[in-house]
Write a structure and sequence with these properties.
With 830 residues, the protein is α+β, with helices and mostly antiparallel strands. It has six domains: 241 residues, no CATH class; 66 residues, Immunoglobulin-like, CATH 2.60.40.1590; 78 residues, Immunoglobulin-like, CATH 2.60.40.1930; 84 residues, Immunoglobulin-like (Sandwich); 121 residues, Phosphorylase Kinase, domain 1 (2-Layer Sandwich), CATH 3.30.200.20; 214 residues, Transferase(Phosphotransferase), domain 1, CATH 1.10.510. The protein is 39% helix and 26% strand. A six-stranded antiparallel β-sheet has the order 26-27-28-29-31-30. Strands 17, 18, 19, 22 and 23 form a five-stranded antiparallel β-sheet that branches. It is rod-shaped, with a radius of gyration of 57 Å. About 2% of the residues have low confidence.
């Protein structure tokens, strides 16, 4: 319930003044000095009660009128001293407690003590001299005690003041308050009126203790009516006492000034020494006070806003409208670069003058048309207010923006890794020298945003795939608080040349549905990769599309891929028919793609290379065992060679039975399913126990019998194979028989059957053919050189198969045994 206003109370108390005049001036037309002074003190005390902080000033008015005047009428040394003390202390008490903004506790206590003593002495002197009874002395106590107690700002402090009123009334009426009955209470007499007055005080105590104010004036009016109509003189001050106790201390909220400036609201108000709260749109705001004035600057958006200032519970509200920034002819833009605040002020209209400050410090500007730029050094993190004031035509416009600087330095460490075809961008953001996340970050490539990930604190990575060679501009923009940093870098992506191709490029990529995890090997004619699909691993053989000039390499032509693709289904079927052959799962080759790759389109070699998917053999090759001395020099080595020989013959017999020729039998194409061991004994035991199996691999080079030959391996093929390839003749099974004999020769002796000069002449014949020169001379020299080698063929160990190997590697193809004959003779050897 809202308490009555001072205006309402002043009307009530003015009515009481009129009532007192009638009561004292026309009461039987007999006015004693006692009654006159009592009425006068009450009358004058009513006047300040109509004003803010009224009952602070009731003290000197009531005290001086009622007590000081009688003392001066009977002048004596004691009376003079007491009158002076009472006057000074009553005035000082009101003044020292009256300035609520700066209460002086020590003067207040001094005046309170002196006033209490002088008031008590005065009362005793006047009562003892017969001028007054105890009634006016006690009745005045609530008038000066309650205002002082209210300075503590507690509603319960009103109770002692009301208790004093009850004591004063009890001392006036005496035992009549204790000896009453219902009939006495309901009778119309001075005693019943006194009792009803006491009950009214008790009701007032309860109402005021609960914080109520509004019913008190009603009680005041009721008691005034009772006193006026029926009451004795003792109750005359009763309404005044209740009114004095019930008036709250006035906390006027004056001097609030609210002004809109651009996108901010500026509030100014006088400093108060008590609890003060400032709210804008119901949100508490901070303010600072200096030289008795408090100010607050609130940055807000456009629209209507409510500003409310509350001082000790008293509030005043003002509404203000902030216009949108776009409607102002001044726009402030800013950015932070290290410890410099870069400011750009854009103005529309003719500018007569423009001043820019940051926290009150002027900023030097450079004009560029309608744009003004400047820099302000930032010394430490914190809030900075940019304010621009311009005179445009005859109007002065002021706009401000607040900048929150959380840190002073933002750096971007930009790294670009060219892992063709991927461009891997890594940006690390450093705030004041330490890796730290930022509020915003953008990674753009050639002005287009690309997505990125945030794998670690302050680390941002993005990947751009570019199959073709191109130059890119990478831009990283980062923002932390109000600091913005931009880092630029230009980089050119160039696909690698086919002649210098690194198979590691495939790692992490997907080739024909297989995820490439690593590189298993690099040969003269191919790369072997480790692939994974549905938790199973495979070997992926990718043919080299750049013909090599190495004498130890297999030469292949474009037609090889076409033939391989055509025969893929049959070759897969053959690999399934024998456990001695490495399983073939897929052949991928396209003649048009191969042509485009050879024309320089490297990205096609990355995505669509000619490839064979094979069973993964993790135990290495027979060539690897030859290089292990602990195995090769072991007495068990001949037995190991026999097992390898037997398994390879069985594999070739399946191939030949299906009317195909392998055409690339060599130690590197004989694989082990698991590592066979590190000594001759380990290898032999593992092969016999079946823990390791021998398999013939690389069916990708196989051709149908009579089909044109497109490749050769000079160290292991016969000279007639190269001759037939150049003359366009077809493949024959005896070419595999020769290659297998040369392979066994290599495994037993550790050297190649075809010497360097034979290899050189065969390669020379191919080169001459490609130049359209005379290649026959090279072939004849190769035949003569090989005939000499063959006539002197000897095996250092495993002499049991020396004759068989000599027949298998005969210079005359017609003298070579079939693969089945080789198998039969081999099985006959114990």
């Amino acid at each position: 319930m809202q308490r009555p206003t001072f205006k309402a109370l002043s009307i009530i108390y003015m009515a009481f003044v009129a009532y007192l005049l009638v009561f004292f001036l026309f009461d039987d037309f007999h006015v004693s000095t006692y009654a006159l002074l009592t009425g006068l003190s009450l009358l004058i005390s009513c006047i300040p009660l109509a004003f803010p902080r009224a009952n602070l000033y009731v003290i000197p008015v009531y005290s001086v009128t009622l007590f000081v005047v009688p003392l001066f009428l009977d002048i004596s040394n004691l009376n003079l001293v007491v009158a002076i003390l009472l006057t000074v202390s009553s005035l000082g008490l009101a003044l020292s407690a009256g300035d609520l903004r700066k209460p002086f506790l020590v003067p207040l206590l001094v005046f309170l003590v002196v006033f209490g003593i002088s008031y008590s002495v005065t009362g005793i002197i006047l009562v003892e001299s017969g001028v007054y009874s105890w009634f006016p002395f006690l009745a005045g106590i609530p008038l000066f005690i309650s205002p002082v107690m209210k300075l503590i700002e507690s509603k319960w402090n009103v109770i002692p003041a009301l208790a004093l009123v009850l004591v004063s009334q009890f001392m006036v009426t005496g035992s009549n308050l204790l000896n009453f009955s219902i009939s006495t209470l309901l009778s119309v007499s001075s005693i019943s009126i006194t009792l009803w007055g006491g009950i009214a005080f008790l009701v007032s105590v309860i109402i005021l203790a609960l914080g109520g104010r509004r019913p008190v004036p009603l009680i005041f009016l009721a008691l005034s009516g009772l006193v006026y109509l029926l009451g004795p003189i003792q109750l005359a001050s009763l309404p005044l006492q209740i009114g004095s106790v019930s008036i709250a201390e006035g906390k006027e909220v004056k001097g609030l000034e609210v002004k809109a400036e651009g996108n901010k609201i500026v509030v100014r108000f006088p400093e108060r020494g008590m609890k003060t709260t400032l709210l804008v749109d119901s949100l508490p705001q901070k303010f600072s006070c200096n030289n008795s004035e408090c100010t607050s600057t609130i940055f807000t958006g456009p629209g209507a806003h409510e500003v409310k200032l509350c001082v000790a519970g008293e509030c005043v509200t003002q509404n203000i409208t902030v216009t949108h920034l776009a409607s102002t002819p001044i726009r402030i833009e800013y950015s932070l670069n290290g410890n410099k605040l870069k400011i750009v002020v854009k103005v529309t209209g003719k500018v007569n003058s423009l001043d820019v400050t940051v926290n009150g410090d002027p900023v030097k500007l450079q004009e560029n048309g309608k744009e003004y730029t400047g820099e302000y050094p930032i010394s430490s993190p914190g809030k900075y207010v940019i304010e621009a004031t311009a005179t445009i035509r005859s109007n002065t416009v002021s706009v401000s923006r607040e900048v929150e600087v959380e840190s002073l330095n933002l750096e971007i460490s930009l790294k670009i890794d060219q892992r063709w075809p991927d461009l891997v961008i890594t940006a690390e953001t450093l705030v004041d020298g330490s890796k730290s996340p930022v509020d915003k970050i953008r990674i753009k490539v050639n002005d287009e945003d690309i997505s990125f990930s945030n794998p670690d604190t302050g680390v941002y990575t993005a990947t751009l795939t570019s199959l073709e060679g191109k130059t890119y501009e990478v831009v990283v923009e980062a923002q932390k608080g109000e600091i913005t940093r931009v880092e630029r870098r230009k980089v050119t992506i160039s696909p690698p040349l086919l002649s210098s191709w690194d198979p590691k490029i495939w790692i992490g990529k997907t080739v024909y549905g297989y995820d490439v995890e690593g590189v298993l090997g690099i040969g003269g004619t191919s790369f072997v990769l480790l692939g994974k699909r549905e938790n199973r691993r495979y070997a992926i053989k990718i043919a080299s599309v750049s013909p090599s000039s190495s004498s130890s390499s297999t030469r292949l032509g474009i037609s090889t891929f076409s033939d391989l693709s055509k025969e893929s289904s049959k070759l897969q079927e053959i690999s399934e028919r024998s456990n001695d052959i490495v399983k073939l799962y897929g052949v991928y080759a396209d003649v048009n793609t191969i042509k485009e790759i050879l024309e320089g389109k490297s990205y096609l070699y990355l995505t669509n290379p000619p490839a064979i998917i094979m069973e993964l053999m993790t135990g290495g090759t027979a060539e690897d065992l030859v290089k292990k001395e602990a195995v090769f020099l072991s007495s068990n080595w001949p037995s190991v060679v026999k097992l390898i020989f037997t398994s390879t013959v069985r594999a070739l017999s399946v191939v030949h039975r299906e009317n195909y020729v392998h055409l690339d039998v060599k130690p590197r194409n004989i694989f082990f399913t698991e590592p066979p061991g590190n000594t001759g004994g380990e290898v032999l035991n593992n092969l016999i126990a079946g823990r390791t199996m021998v398999k013939l691999g690389d069916l990708g080079s196989a051709r149908r019998r009579g089909e044109r030959i497109t490749e050769y391996t000079a160290e292991y093929c016969p000279v007639d194979q190269v001759e037939d390839m150049l003359l366009g003749r077809g493949a024959r099974p005896d070419m595999d028989v020769f290659a297998l004999g040369a392979t066994i020769y290599r495994l037993i002796n550790g050297t190649s059957l075809n010497p360097v000069e034979v290899v050189r002449e065969m390669d020379g014949a191919v080169d001459a053919f490609l130049r359209r020169g005379d290649f026959r001379a090279n072939l004849e020299r190769a035949k003569r050189a090989y005939a000499t080698v063959h006539s002197n063929l000897r095996l250092s160990r495993f002499h049991e198969v020396e004759g068989l190997v000599r027949k298998m590697t005969d210079p005359d193809p017609t003298e070579r045994p079939s693969i089945q004959e080789v198998l039969n003779e081999l099985m006959a050897i114990k």
